[in-house]
Structures are given as C-alpha cells and as structure tokens.
Design brief:
With about 525 residues, the protein is mainly beta. The longest helix is centred in the N-terminal third of the chain and has 4 residues. The protein starts with 7 loop residues before the first helix and ends with a strand.
Length: about 525
C-alpha cells in the first residue's frame, strides 16, 4: 500500500481526512539485533512461508471459519463493501457481479462487469460499475448502478469511464444520485450529468468540458453527502492580444436536489484526486486559484477563509482541525473553532499522513522517493509543541496508520521492486517512544480492530495469489494467530470488525464468500 505525497501547493485536492487505514496484525516483544533502518527483529512473531509459499495450492490446516454467506465451486472474489453491509463480489467464471448481505440471505444479481476490480465503485449504499470494459483509445463505456432497495439501473451508455481510481463517476452516500461525464467516442468535450439511481431522470449540469488537454484529463466528480463537487477544464480562448492561456481547472459544487452551481474558483492548477472536505461536509480545503497556500472554501458559496498563505500539505482531524506543513517545513495545527494556529514542530517535515484515533499523534515524512513513492517516517504530537521522532530515516517506508488504542504506529518496509506479489515487512513502534519492531515478514494490508490488534494477509502463494489471514496483538509477545489459510487476498473489514473474505483454494463445499469476527 504505497501512499503518494499530498501536494497542497499544486492543488490541495488529495488532502487526507484524518483517519487510520483500518487494519490489524500481530506483534511481538522487542528482541534481537537492530536492523539497518533501526528496527529490531522480534523473531517469534513472524509467520512462516510454508504452506504454498512457492508451490501450488497447498490449502493449509486452517480452512474457512465463521459464517459462509455464499457457497460456490466457481471462484468468487469480494471486490467492495457497501455502507449498508453488503459484500459485492464477482464470479470469476461467469464475470457476473453480485451483492450479498453480511447478515445473511440470498445474493442479488447485479449484472455483468469487466473483471477489472478498479471499475467497481461503492459509496454509501450504492455500487457504480462498468458492465463492459472501456475502450483504451476512447475511455468511453456504459455505466450502471445498484442499490439493495432499487436494484440495477443503466445510468449511461456513453460516459467517460477511465476507471474509478480517477473519480470519473460517483454516487451520493444516500444512494439517490450518480454523477458522470457524458460523451462519445473521439469527442473533444463532455457534459457533466447527474442521474437518479435508476437512470430514469438525467440532468445535464455543465456542457463543453474540455477532454483534449492531458494535463487536465480526466475530469473528476465526488459526492460529499448530497453535494457534488466537480473538477474540470474548459477550452482556453485567446484573449484580445491573441494569447491563449494555459489550461486551468474549475471547481464547482452542486447541492441536491436542485444542483445549482456554486463556483469555488476558475483558475486552479489541474491536479488529479479528490478535494479535501472537512468532517461536517461544508468546507473544502484548497489553495487559492493560481496561487499557493491553504484556504477553506464554503461549499454553499461565500468568501474563503485563509488558513495559511504558506501552507503546503495538510489533513483534517476528526474534530475538523487542520494539521499541515508549511513552506518552512513546520508542522502546524489550525483550530477550526478559533481560527488560531499552533506550531507543533518548527522545521524538517513535509507530508502528514495519518492521525491516531485519539487525536494525539500524527505520522509524517520529510522526504519522498520520486521513483518508488516510499518515504522516511516521523512521529509527532498532534496537540503539543515538541520535537518529532525519527522512526525510519531512509525513504523505504509506507505508513499504514495507528492501532485503535493509539498505542502503536504501523508501517511497511522492504517492498519488492518487481512485479511479484506486493508483500512487505510490517513494522510497528509505540507512540510512547522506542525502536520499531518487525511484526511480519510477508504482510499485505493492515486492518485495525480493537485495542492493539490488527488483521492482515501473509504467506502469499506465488502460484495462486492466495494468502493466509492472521490476527496480531501488538501488545502481546505471542505470535500471529492464523484465522484462515490461503484465502483470496481481497480482504475487507466492516465497522463492527467483521472480516469479509472469499476462499476457493479447493472446489468443495467450503468455497465461497465468508465472514468472521476478528479477535
């Protein structure tokens, strides 16, 4: 899970709302010798690379456990979860997309899809997906949507549909609306359109969106509650002197049900990614059009509030405060209630990543590798001025967040530089201080549960891609607890700590979609 740097000076569009990455793994007590990055090897906490690490389908001694939601001898892969607790999965044999309630019941047939996981998008209770693959020459494809209450509806037969990573389509959290860019093959323009979830009512919002400049392609949409935020470029027009200006990005908010346009600005520098919005869903954090710094723009319209003219990279805390770095490398906290700034660390920092659940700690970096996206790693107080602690001094880490009790900061290192399974060494350090400890040697993903616990994949088979699901308690000296051997590595966690996974290591009655309660 490599995290990209957040560059607010370019356009603070990819700002991270303060939250952990929801993960969990097992840790062991510090022990043994220090590694080159300063970590210590806990030894007894590592999972072995046996049971199919190099060979074929050795399914291990721990078959699926928990509750079987769907039984199938076809391989099923869970792709997403909805907020109303439906697991969205694909039958790889038929390429049919389904949803099943985690509480149990018969699956709902959503429809055919592309077998590309990135083209399935969930937001709130809605699923938006591409029923066929997009043409790589045109990026035009039909779009459909599904909710448990409305079923499947055709939204558009011709839309910009690069894939969901680029936010070219989205659904409102309440499952009422879908936004997308309507266009045709080889057309230089598109029309921003909002549709009811059943596809029966289509409302054009903004025509003539430019698709020709790659620095501004693709345009993007995102719903924040019932407000649609759209980013797009218009075709530049020569001025009276005959000079054609460079491409600039317009950011507009539309609030349901009228979807009246409120333009936040028309000269933003194009940057891909979502706009950062505060926890109340009313303020967007952006640099000023054509400039640098951090400003809060009311989505309902009005004069923006200057946070810091020298602000660079930022994230929201759960309370709506802003933690950011400025052009001098200082870490600063902006209090939303009083509009006051407190310098927490005077210099040496660049990118804030995650805030701990208790709001007291933040993971940061001072450097990022341009070739790998990996960073070094610091820990700092999110509330009290003081020095930051260097956890990893080289650009070899990827932060993964904090445990639910905020006692441990978790990160990855040792990432492979090839095209094999993207497993890595999971490490953790206490927020109270101390050297990092190796948790697992071949981890993939971190899903935090309760206390100091997390769930992760490990022991991934190069032959099948399947991996073990293990639970780790970072506060214990005990090793990882294996929950399931050789499950599909697409692992998901509900808000109530239910692990949702699929298993098809053997074509028998155990294969299908499962859920279990994390330890």
């Amino acid at each position: 899970m490599l995290r990209r740097a957040i560059d607010a000076s370019a356009v603070a569009l990819i700002l991270t709302v303060g939250q952990g990455c929801g993960s969990s793994t097992n840790a062991t007590a510090p022990d043994a010798s220090a590694g080159s990055d300063g970590s210590t090897d806990a030894g007894v906490g590592e999972a072995s690379a046996s049971e199919g690490g190099e060979g074929g389908a050795a399914c291990g001694a721990m078959p699926p456990t928990g509750t079987q939601l769907v039984k199938s001898t076809d391989p099923l892969v869970v792709l997403k979860l909805t907020d109303d607790d439906h697991a969205v999965y694909e039958d790889l044999t038929t390429q049919e997309l389904y949803a099943v309630a985690i509480a149990g019941g018969s699956p709902s047939d959503i429809g055919k899809m592309t077998s590309q996981g990135g083209t399935v998008w969930t937001h709130g209770t809605a699923v938006v997906y591409l029923p066929i693959a997009a043409d790589p020459q045109t990026d035009i494809a039909p779009i459909s949507a599904w909710t448990a209450s409305a079923g499947t509806g055709v939204i558009s037969k011709s839309a910009i549909a690069v894939d969901s990573y680029y936010y070219t389509y989205d659904a409102s959290k309440d499952g009422q609306w879908v936004a997308y860019f309507a266009s045709t093959a080889n057309s230089p323009t598109a029309t921003l359109t909002v549709s009811t979830i059943d596809g029966k009512t289509q409302t054009p919002l903004m025509p003539n969106i430019d698709l020709t400049d790659e620095s501004c392609f693709p345009p993007a949409v995102q719903f924040v509650n019932d407000t649609l935020i759209a980013q797009y470029c218009v075709t530049p027009v020569a001025n009276d002197a005959g000079v054609t200006p460079g491409e600039t990005s317009t950011i507009v908010a539309f609030t349901a049900p009228s979807f009246t346009a409120v333009t936040l600005g028309t000269t933003f520098t194009p940057t891909p990614g979502p706009v950062a919005v505060d926890p109340t869903g009313t303020m967007a954090l952006l640099p000023p059009p054509g400039g640098s710094g951090l400003l809060l723009y009311p989505l309902a319209g009005g004069t923006p509030v200057v946070v810091d003219p020298n602000g660079v990279n930022a994230l929201f805390t759960a309370t709506g405060d802003i933690l950011y770095t400025n052009s001098s490398g200082a870490l600063v906290r902006y209090a939303a209630a009083t509009s006051t700034m407190t310098t927490l660390v005077p210099s040496g920092l660049a990118i804030p990543f995650d805030v701990s659940p208790d709001g007291n700690w933040v993971q940061l970096a001072s450097e990022e590798s341009a070739s790998t996206g990996l960073t070094n790693l610091y820990l700092a107080s999110a509330t009290t001025p003081g020095a930051a602690t260097a956890v990893v001094k080289t650009e070899t880490a990827s932060p993964e967040g904090f445990t639910a009790d905020s006692k441990y900061s978790v990160f990855g290192s040792g990432f492979p530089m090839d095209f094999g399974p993207s497993t890595y060494t999971m490490q953790a350090s206490t927020t109270a201080g101390g050297a990092p400890v190796k948790v697992l040697s071949a981890a993939a993903g971190a899903y935090f549960t309760t206390g100091s616990k997390l769930v992760t994949n490990t022991n991934q088979s190069k032959a099948t891609g399947a991996a073990d699901i293990v639970s780790v308690d970072l506060s214990s000296t005990a090793g990882p607890t294996t929950l399931v051997n050789q499950a599909d590595p697409n692992l998901f966690m509900t808000a109530t700590n239910q692990v949702v996974y699929s298993w098809y290591c053997q074509e028998n009655g155990m294969a299908g979609v499962w859920t279990l309660t994390a330890p």
